[in-house]
Specification:
heterotrimer; A alpha/beta; B alpha/beta; C alpha/beta; A: alpha/beta; Rossmann fold; C: alpha/beta; 4 helices; 5 strands; 18% strand
């Protein structure tokens, strides 16, 4: 029998998801025992053309990380979809849009201007911005087009399974690959993580009182954080209650609150909206002005509550209205 | 959501001309016919008629309809009617959704095209929503039919007797050693000027001898667990040090007791002993030892009462006992306290002789009181000039903004009684406004006003009244209605003090987990339509614990609370629970506990073993606050699920 | 622009504002047809997710009506609505959704005229704001 083929690809990605594959350490041998990695730009010099030549469905499983922002990402996602029997969105960006997704609070032009003109370390007196088509003398240059919005993988192709995380817990990556290699039948859309929110496995859960109320929101640098006490009980925003567990609480162990990279649990319609609801509910005031004051102490609510999930959230982006 | 198993029947009620003329019913029906899962769409002239109900019932069977949408009047009008129709046809009553196209469309939109458009959206929403409806069961639980009544004043006694009349076992817990509350210490009551003990004693007697009432006097509630139908209550029975089964209240013990302490039952106007009967005629008529002051119990050599008791009833070795009660419902009739005028230095209370609070004056008037009912000054002489100050502590921003409601009447009562005893005396009532509602108050006032030597002085602001000692008299300074400062001298002044929440109201509210209003009175479930129930199912309130009121009002509330209990908590019958409640999915609950403290009914508890939250369906009333709160979306609001509401929103906004 | 008719989703609590809307109907007081009502048991049931979802589904405005302070049928559900509303409104601004598109009012069952005024004013204001262009800016 032919050995199953595995492919890995990165779209708009920081490389952290690739690390999560390296972090499989010896487990990678268990994978290569029974399968061949046929495409992995970060490690192998395989050309796109070679992928093109593959038969449809030839790849057993393809892990795609990073969000979709350029023509190239979309093209490769579609190509790999055709060539693969199972496509797994690998990491928060592919799963729910990821941290790059916060760019959706800004217009395409604002992003480009910022990156190519306004950043203090950039010297660009002519104000040249990257173009999909340009000319350098006789040479016609074609670059990948830059889209208006950041999208998660399932906005451009059909996705079978998801591995959340920024970066993902290597255990989840291993489980996902092995499930394909072992021909396990899983429901479409399966997420390789816990069903319950992070609090279920959080070592600090028992330190959270039944009545946790918040009078002010503290920020990371403003406090000496008790390394054993629930962050919310210390007036620190922690998205753990609205975020899937399975990450191994790596942030919590480093005395950092959860920022939601594992995405919402299954019944949540909108992770940011849901967390906002829960946080508002424990604000200890009935007075409009005081509540407003507390609300004002939460800087960048949208960026905080949708840190990893903006492109996959209900609104996806900053909305345009005629009045603006 | 297309689902072969869902077969929706949509009925559009024309409501005679009401809906039919306001919109194009046929156009709406045509529009709805094409909807997913809809197998039947029928306009009908009047669905709530027998004919209409029969039609729906017949169609459900004939077309195997699984869900029903009615476009008709408000669900508040006929949801119950049509749920019955579904049940009769063998469908779960909750598989119904009503689009309110009469009150919220036909009657408020004059333009026919706009009304048609809105009705389409409303029905589309109902069709989409009903596809997600789930059958709900009305669960029933076993319950205790015994009742705990706390407080044996008129309100509590009325509740207890009403319950006992229907052979209901009642535990009547009273913190004092005797029953009858404050009324038992009054001489006469308004507006009839009947003798208080003539009114009250037969009731007290009945309480003591009713086989269904177990009086637990000199006792306090320590803990309440459970919920409607199943409360477990711990009662601390304080040591009485006297065997109440053999003591006959002869008083031989009190006579020999060497200890003298201020008598709280006479508002401290005279003294009592360390072993005492609260007042002559107190029921049960049994002595009690005040452990804090008894020499023997304080470790000193004294056995005087034990030596004197002809019945051997003294029990120095007595200790507090805890009794556990299992009851289905609770009536809290824990009474009130009066405003302490020492808080207002202007009144000179406690400093100027012969200035009394109304409660003290009640005792002066009472034949079992310190003066045996004679109105006397401290020097033993009867007063000639008596002043009454209204609204002491009431209707003032500084103390209580509310009107205590009964002070005008009891002040008038005092004047009547003073005039009866001292016909030549001169009485002056200082008031800012009179509160005399009801059938008999005006004539009660009139009768007094017609008497000689009774004056009413309206003051500009009751806070302007000031009392000063002047020689041997009391000078009352005030601003008259024109703002002029004036003064009058009196021999005796009565302060008509406000009724306020009992000093232990907060403690009780915590034990019973009920709410208090801003003044500390127990809060009813709804001011107008649920005045004696509380936000906790099975706990009722009656009498002045719930706010100042007269005897009539207190008795009515006691009886009302009893009636509510008798009608719902029936021996042998199970208690039906609200089917629209919250439900926790244990597979999703992370145990973050965010929801727990937000439940208004304490229906959510954290299971330490499972590390998840569970809902007590007896306590839950289905508000959905926890559901909106749950950050992990692990709680479902039955009949108002996220899926149902989202489907409804989509339907309403469909283009 | 004149022909623009905004759609408003209104979450009405079963005990006060829904009852109020019914009584306005019984009194046959006219108000704009733009209102689309979702009945909830308590304004405390209104999940910010519903509000966001309604905007997503093309509502131009959302209204949450609850009982007056101290009159909530469930004690303090209306305060939950208030807290969520304040935070949500602030967050929605970051999404470019103007404050005028989300409103919270306390309306008792007997305040029919207030109800009519609130609805009319919101329709008037939304007509000025115009539609929410959620589909815009996509490639």
């Amino acid at each position: 029998m032919e050995r199953p083929k595995i492919a890995l690809y990165w779209c708009s990605s920081c490389g952290g998801c690739e690390e999560s594959v390296l972090d499989l350490s010896e487990n990678i041998l268990k994978i290569t025992e029974s399968a061949d990695i046929v495409f992995w730009p970060v490690a192998l010099d395989t050309k796109y053309e070679e992928v093109n030549r593959m038969k449809d469905g030839e790849i057993a499983a393809c892990l795609i990380n990073g969000s979709i922002r350029m023509d190239e990402h979309e093209y490769m996602a579609q190509l790999l979809r055709k060539k693969s029997r199972i496509v797994i969105a690998h990491g928060s960006c592919a799963y729910i849009g990821g941290i790059y997704g916060l760019a959706n609070f800004y217009k395409r032009e604002e992003c480009l201007n910022r990156a190519y003109k306004e950043v203090p370390s950039v010297k660009n007196p002519e104000g040249i911005l990257p173009q999909a088509q340009s000319r350098d003398g006789e040479v016609e240059i074609e670059l990948s087009g830059f889209h208006d919005l950041v999208k998660p993988l399932n906005h451009v192709i059909e996705v079978d399974y998801y591995i959340p995380g920024c970066p993902p817990n290597p255990e989840n990556v291993f489980e996902a690959i092995m499930s394909v290699l072992q021909n396990r039948t899983l429901p479409k859309g399966n997420v390789f993580a816990d069903q319950k929110a992070l609090c279920a496995t959080c070592s600090r859960r028992d330190t959270k009182p039944e009545k946790a109320v918040i009078k002010e929101i503290k920020r990371l640098h403003e406090w000496q954080w008790d390394p054993e006490k629930c962050f919310l009980a210390q007036d620190m925003i922690c998205l753990g209650p609205a975020t899937r567990g399975g990450c191994g609480e790596r942030c919590i162990k480093a005395n950092m609150p959860c920022r939601g990279c594992y995405g919402p649990t299954e019944n949540i319609i909108d992770q940011g909206g849901k967390f906002l609801s829960a946080l508002a509910s424990i604000i200890d005031s009935k007075d409009k002005r005081e509540i407003e004051k507390i609300a004002d102490s939460i800087l960048d609510m949208g960026g905080l509550f949708y840190r990893y999930c903006l492109p996959s959230s209900l609104l996806e982006k900053k909305v345009k209205s005629l009045s603006s | 959501m297309k689902d072969e198993k869902i077969r929706i029947g949509v009925y559009i009620c024309e409501c005679g001309p009401n809906i039919k003329e306001a919109m194009d019913v046929n156009e709406i029906a045509e529009f709805i016919r094409g909807f997913e899962n809809v197998v039947l769409t029928k306009p009908f002239h009047l669905l709530c008629s027998e004919e209409g109900k029969t039609l729906i019932e017949k169609d459900i069977k004939e077309y195997q309809l699984t869900n029903i949408v009615l476009a008709a009047c408000s669900p508040k009008e006929h949801e119950i009617t049509f749920r019955k129709v579904l049940r009769n046809a063998g469908l779960n009553p909750f598989l119904l959704q009503i689009a309110n196209i009469r009150e919220q469309c036909a009657w408020v939109i004059k333009d026919k095209a706009l009304a048609t458009q809105k009705a389409k959206a409303m029905i589309a929403a109902a069709v989409k929503r009903v596809a997600y409806h789930e059958p709900l069961e009305t669960k029933e639980i076993q319950c205790h039919s015994d009742v705990l009544v706390v407080g044996a004043g008129v309100a509590g006694i009325s509740a207890a007797l009403t319950l006992a009349q229907k052979n209901r076992k009642v535990y009547l817990v009273e913190k004092l050693p005797c029953i009858g509350g404050k009324v038992a210490r009054y001489e006469k009551v308004f507006p009839s000027l009947e003798c208080a003990s003539c009114v009250l004693d037969p009731l007290l007697d009945e309480v003591l001898h009713n086989e269904h009432i177990e009086l637990i006097a000199f006792s306090e509630i320590e803990e309440v667990l459970g919920f409607y139908g199943n409360f477990i209550v711990k009662v601390r029975k304080k040591a009485r040090f006297v065997d109440s089964t053999t003591c006959i209240g002869c008083g031989a013990c009190s006579e020999v007791c060497p200890v003298k302490i201020k008598n709280e039952y006479n508002e401290g106007l005279d003294n009592r002993k360390a072993i005492y009967i609260p007042y002559p005629g107190a029921l049960p008529h049994v002595a009690v030892i005040d452990g804090k002051h008894c020499l023997h119990l304080q470790g000193k050599e004294c056995n005087a009462c034990q030596d004197a008791c002809p019945f051997g009833s003294i029990r120095y070795e007595d200790t507090d006992q805890i009794q556990e009660l299992e009851v289905g419902a609770i009536v809290l009739a824990t009474g009130f306290d009066v405003f302490d005028p020492k808080k207002v230095s202007r009144y000179g209370y406690g400093k100027i002789k012969n200035v009394y609070t109304s409660l003290e004056f009640e005792r002066l008037l009472n034949s079992t009181g310190p003066t045996e009912g004679k109105i006397l000054l401290k020097n033993g002489q009867p007063p000639k000039r008596i002043g009454l100050i209204h609204c002491v502590g009431s209707r003032t921003k500084k103390y209580h903004e509310y009107c205590s409601g009964i002070c005008c009447m009891y002040s008038l009562k005092f004047s009547h009684l003073i005039k009866e005893q001292l016909p030549d005396s001169s009485i002056t009532e200082f008031y800012s406004d009179f509160c005399l509602p009801g059938r008999e108050s005006q004539s009660f006032f009139k009768k007094l006003a017609d008497k000689k030597g009774v004056n009413f002085i309206q003051v500009k602001n009751i806070d302007s009244v000031e009392l000063k000692k002047k020689d041997n008299t009391i000078l009352v300074k005030y601003r008259d209605i024109n703002g002029k400062i004036k003064g009058r001298s009196f021999d005796l002044v009565i302060l008509s003090v406000a009724l306020e929440a009992a000093r232990n109201a907060r403690e009780l509210a915590e034990i019973f987990d009920i709410s208090q209003d801003k003044d500390g009175f127990f809060l009813e479930e709804h001011t107008n339509i649920a005045p004696v129930s509380t936000s906790v199912g099975g706990i009722f309130i009656a009498g002045c614990a719930h706010g100042p009121k007269d005897i009539q009002g207190a008795v009515a509330e006691g009886q009302a609370a009893a009636g509510r209990i008798l009608s719902k908590l029936i021996p042998g019958e199970k208690l039906s629970l609200e089917p629209i409640t919250a439900e926790v999915d244990e597979d999703l609950c992370s145990g973050c506990k965010t929801c727990i403290s937000l439940c208004p009914y304490k229906a959510l508890t954290y299971d330490q073993k499972k590390k998840t939250v569970s809902v007590n369906e007896v306590l839950c009333r289905g508000c959905g606050i926890c559901v909106a709160t749950c950050p992990g979306a692990a709680i479902k609001a039955r009949h108002f699920t996220d899926k149902q509401i989202v489907a409804e929103i989509k339907g309403l906004l469909q283009r | 622009m004149n022909s623009f008719e905004p759609k408003i989703i209104a979450f009405l609590c079963n005990w006060c504002s829904y009852e109020c809307a019914d009584s306005v109907g019984r009194a046959q007081k006219e108000y704009p047809s733009n209102l689309r009502v979702v009945r909830v048991m308590c304004s405390g049931r209104v999940d910010p997710q519903f509000v966001i979802k309604a905007f997503k589904e093309d509502a131009e405005g959302i209204m949450i009506l609850g009982c007056h302070a101290g009159e909530c049928h469930y004690k303090e559900g209306n305060y939950q609505a208030l807290r969520r509303y304040i935070l949500l409104k602030k967050m929605l601004a970051q999404f470019g959704i103007e404050g005028g598109r989300l409103r919270l009012h306390w309306v008792s069952a007997s305040e029919g005229d207030k109800f009519v005024t609130i609805v009319s004013e919101m329709v008037r204001d939304l007509k000025k704001l115009g539609p929410l262009l959620l589909r815009d800016m996509e490639r």
